[in-house]
Write a structure and sequence with these properties.
It is a single chain. The protein is α/β, with parallel strands linked by helices. It has helices at about 10-20, 25-35, 55-60, 80-95, 105-115, 135-140, 200-210, 215-220, 225-240, 245-250, 250-260, and strands spanning about 1-5, 40-45, 65-70, 100-105, 115-125, 130-135, 150-155, 155-165, 170-175, 180-185, 190-195. The chain has one domain (about 1-200, about 245-260): Rossmann fold. The protein has a 9-stranded mixed sheet, sandwiched between helices. The protein has a two-stranded antiparallel sheet with strand order 5-8. Helix 7 runs antiparallel to helix 9. The two termini are about 25 Å apart.
């Protein structure tokens, strides 16, 4: 049975806000998805921004078969103590963990820790990323085994990777983000990075949109008004009706399968 470390990217305060609104934390969503896929794993969870026992995890990172680093509402270019703690922990992970699946915020932390760059995007994904297209490298990579060349996926991000670190390659793009996924070899780690969220349901994305409704209209100005926002939710609801949940999560399944391989993948 494989042993996985899940890294919670959100601050404890944000997770409390989620729970009070009846929304799963990203770690809870990930656990549900792994259970849905039928994966039998030993799972530990750590929050580098707030856990007092972080040094204990630093010392036993080498004991994990893999690490999954999930999403967050943070922005990597804001220089806060909590973000610095996450970057430093990622650097240690890249030295000691062979297999890292870095999702959305996780990919941004991995890229930053490895010397790449993340900036605020010109436009954003709110609940869904449309028409993600695999390039030739992506089509050949085990991350996308069985995946269609063009697909939609749950996503929620305002930032994007603008500089891939050395030894990294882009695997997929869309009109919003040039880097929708990447492969990165850094230290002892192979990082499979995703800007989108195969592990989160569209239903949760709709809950997040409603949770952030005022911010999306008044602060972020993603939508002009309530009518625009509701139209967007209706679009995502239609996507739910045509989405096969297991196919949506192929990236997660393929990464778990990689852990069972005796020889390293490309």
């Amino acid at each position: 049975m494989k042993k996985i470390l899940i890294v919670e990217g959100n601050l404890a305060e944000e997770n409390k806000n989620f729970s009070e609104a009846g929304i799963q934390t990203h770690t809870e969503s990930l656990k549900d998805s792994l259970k849905y896929l039928g994966e039998k794993l030993i799972l530990d969870v750590v929050n580098p921004s707030s856990d007092q026992n972080i040094q204990i995890f630093n010392e036993k990172l080498h004991t994990y078969d893999g690490l999954i680093w999930g999403g967050s509402s943070l922005n990597i270019y804001k220089d806060t103590p909590e973000i610095r703690k996450q970057i430093e922990f990622m650097k240690n992970c890249q030295k000691k963990v062979k297999n890292i699946l870095a999702i959305c915020w996780g990919m941004q932390v991995a890229v930053t820790a490895a010397g790449g760059q993340v900036k605020k995007a010109a436009t954003s994904h709110v609940g869904i990323a449309k028409e993600i297209i695999l390039n030739e490298k992506g089509l050949a990579h085990p991350l996308y085994k069985g995946k269609e060349k063009k697909f939609n996926s749950p996503a929620f991000n305002y930032d994007e990777v603008v500089k891939i670190p050395k030894n990294g390659i882009c695997l997929a793009s869309n009109k919003v983000n040039k880097v929708q996924s990447l492969y990165l070899k850094i230290g002892n780690a192979e990082v499979w990075g995703l800007q989108y969220h195969p592990e989160i349901t569209y239903e949760k994305m709709i809950s997040l949109i409603n949770f952030r409704r005022n911010r999306l209209i008044e602060t972020r100005k993603v939508f002009n008004n309530e009518k625009d926002l509701e139209k967007h939710i209706s679009y995502i609801e239609k996507e739910i009706s045509i989405t096969n949940r297991k196919k949506k999560m192929l990236e997660l399944k393929n990464w778990i399968e990689k852990l069972n391989q005796k020889s390293p993948s490309i």
